[in-house]
Amino acid sequence: MRKLRDILRLRYEAGLNHRAIAQACAVGLGTVTTYLQRATAAGLTWPLPDDLDDTALEARLFRRAASNGGDYVVAEIVPNTQDAGNVSG
C-alpha cells in the first residue's frame, strides 16, 4: 500500500519538508515529491474529505490511461516527399 495519506499529513499538518517526510515514511525523496505534485494537480487539500478512502485517494492520484491513449498524443508519421537535394557522402 502506498503511503499517500501519511505523506500528505506530514506535509500539510506537520509542515515537514520533503526530505524529512521521505525519511519518516521510508520512501525515496522523489516519491514524496511526485506524490505531493500529483496531489496538487488533483486539487486535493488537507484535511482530506471524510468520504475519500485509500482506494479513492489512490485513484485520484494515479488514474490509469484511458483506452484512447490517456494524456499523450500519438504523432502521425508522414513520409517526407520533398526533394532534399543530392547529398553525397
Description:
- This protein has a domain at 4-61.
- The protein is 43% helix and 0% strand.
- It has helices spanning 4-12, 18-25, 29-41, 54-61.
- Helix 1 packs antiparallel against helix 2, helix 1 (4-12) packs across helix 3 and helix 2 (18-25) packs across helix 3.
- The mean pLDDT is 82.
How do the helices and strands line up, and which of them pair or pack?
Layout: H1 4-12, H2 18-25, H3 29-41, H4 54-61
Class from secondary-structure proportions? mainly alpha
Poorly predicted tracts of residues: none
How confident overall, as mean pLDDT?
Answer: 82
**Measured on Cα atoms, how large is the radius of gyration?**
21 Å
In brief:
By secondary structure, the protein is mostly helical. Helix content is 43%, strand content 0%.
Using brief descriptors, characterize the structure shown.
89 residues, mainly alpha
